Amino acid sequence: MVTTSAVEKGLALNEGRPPSCDDGLQPPFDHVAETKLKCKLDVRVLPILWVLYLVNFLDRANIGNAKIQGMQEELNLIGQRFNIAVWVFNLGYLVAGVPSAVAFKRFGPKSLCVMMFFWGIMVIGCGLVKNWASLVACRLLEGITEAGFIAGAAYLVGAYYKKDEYLSRYVLFSTAGIVAGAVNGFLSALIAKMGGTAGYAAWRWIFIVEGLITCTVSAASWFIMIPFPEHSTFLKVEEKELLLARLKADGEDVIDEEISARRVLHDLKDWKIWVGVAMNMGVTESANSISNFQPTILKGLGYTATGAQVHTIPVYLAGAAFSVVFAYLSEFVGRRYIFYLFGWAVLSIGLTIEIVYPKQPGVRYLGMFFIACGCYLAMPISIVWVAINAGKGYKRAVTIGAIINFGTAGAFVSSNVFLLKETPRFHTGFSVGLSLACIGAMAATIFYSGCRLGNKRRDERRATLPGADGGNVGDKHTDFRYSL
């Protein structure tokens, strides 16, 4: 976070030269105009990305729904074969994540539509495969083509908002993934009724129909995708001027950067990124467990396949409401660390319930609510908190890409510790999830302590220097202050 004198009083910081009155609008800005601008951004920026993420998560999580609709038997998914099909998707994320994030920053937001079209093709392919090996290949390619989407969308959301507005907007965006989990169970139950049509089993139609939806939405979104702020065309001239002035006063003014492999590797040396990866990995494992294994877990409680699909809906909706409420509260009080720990505590309660495995199915079902609420609050905080503390431009794109995609190591774990032989208790899976959640909490504590120490040292250094000399106030600048 930039210093109080720079942000709260809104002083324009210009590295290497004094502030100039020729730089356009200067803070303090008109409050009414700012409120109208934020409302317009909320209506124009978030909805399109929300819809795309909804479709994205439908495609990512539908393998869990397809499994209990006959895929396991038809493709002979014995032993850990299903887990491997889940695992290779995350391998695709890991391999292509950072390069895809850089490509998004280089080619612009419309690249998200291109990614989406190609992963839609791969989803359709999952519904047409004849054997397990082909399913694994399609899932790997789906992961590769999806790898840059969430990081790119997260970057685009942050590009339009100030640091103290980013988390709540990102959480609103990420509720699409949570709602998709709820919709997926209902949608899969409906699509399953097509079983036998054209000679295809119910599980095949889940992939085919949702893949066709993805391709259609991607083509339509090409024409309405928002550009980066400096190229925005949906704002009036005075609105765009105010937008760019707000971002500049917040230390987010637009700068032209050259990108290279050396630059990316240099950015990846930042300790904050890797601590952020650990924070994200600690809760991503549980989030992926919910999306991929919850239908199987609920079926083990005694529900039919359709009943299990339907009973996932309240779990996801509760997680969405919980994350939005506490993300707004986090921004209101200006604290991220304590709310990450709160999410971790709620998640840990849910995991502990599942590990203990009480006899009452209703109590075990309640545990799923705690898991969803906890991980869906902590996960976006782990991304946004590090992103706003890592500067901007390509550095922020690389940071978000690394956290999201290397953080999928948690998904690697979940896909291999939920053992078929332990159905429906999954003692190993939930125990490992609790261990990783504790690692995430330790990482958050390290991150908080490091940032607090960094602010103290910069305060001491600033006291020995003349007035503000900033401009492009990156995370290495004397006037940059970390958000806690």
Structure commentary:
By secondary structure, the chain is mainly alpha-helical. The chain has a single domain, classed as Growth Hormone, Chain: A (Up-down Bundle). Helices cover 73% and strands 0% of the residues. The chain has 18 helices and no strands. It has helices at 4-7, 31-44, 46-74, 81-107, 111-128, 132-146, 149-160, 163-191, 202-221, 237-249, 261-267, 271-299, 305-333, 337-356, 361-388, 393-406, 409-417, 427-462. Helix 8 (163-191) runs antiparallel to helix 13, helix 12 packs antiparallel against helix 13 (305-333) and helix 13 (305-333) crosses helix 15. The chain is globular. It starts with a helix and ends in a 22-residue tail after the last helix. The relative contact order is 0.15. The model is unreliable at 1-23 (pLDDT under 50).
Outline the fold blueprint.
Layout: H1 4-7, H2 31-44, H3 46-74, H4 81-107, H5 111-128, H6 132-146, H7 149-160, H8 163-191, H9 202-221, H10 237-249, H11 261-267, H12 271-299, H13 305-333, H14 337-356, H15 361-388, H16 393-406, H17 409-417, H18 427-462
Helix pairs in contact: 3-7, 3-8, 3-9, 3-12, 4-6, 4-16, 4-17, 5-6, 5-9, 7-16, 8-13, 8-15, 12-13, 12-15, 12-16, 12-17, 12-18, 13-15, 14-15, 14-18, 15-16, 17-18
Short description:
The chain is mainly alpha-helical and 484 residues long. It is 73% helix and 0% strand.
